[in-house]
Amino acid sequence: MAKPVVIVVGADKGGVGKTTVSRTLLDYFSANNVPTRAFDTESPRGTLKRFHPRRTQWPRHPATPAERG
Fold it and tell me: Does residue 67 lie within any of the structural domains?
């Protein structure tokens, strides 16, 4: 069994193709039956979940004091 690998796709600014590169990688791995998980850190604006809803999740942020009650 292969060891897990982490691939990070990031940039300092928007519109440089992060989602396009991520989608291409997920499509490739899916076509080759490689289990994947994606995290879109641009929630709620992130668009990766729109294209790969079963493989993408947004990271959970800690609750604020107001949310804790």
Answer: no
Q: How far is Cα 12 from Cα 67, in angstroms, rounded to an integer?
A: 30
Please count the other Cβ atoms lying within 10 Å of the Cβ belonging to residue 49: 18
In a domain, 35, yes or no: yes
Helix H segments across 1-69? 18-31, 48-51, 65-68
Tell me which DSSP letter residue 62 carries: P
- Cα 13 to Cα 10, 17, 18, 20, 42, distances in angstroms: 9, 10, 10, 14, 12
Cα–Cα dist 13/17, whole Å: 10
Handedness of CA 7, 43, 21, 55 (dihedral sign): positive
* Tens digit of each residue's pLDDT (9 = 90 or more) over 14-51: 888 888 898 899 899 989 998 888 877 776 666 776 76
Domain containing 38: what range?
18-59
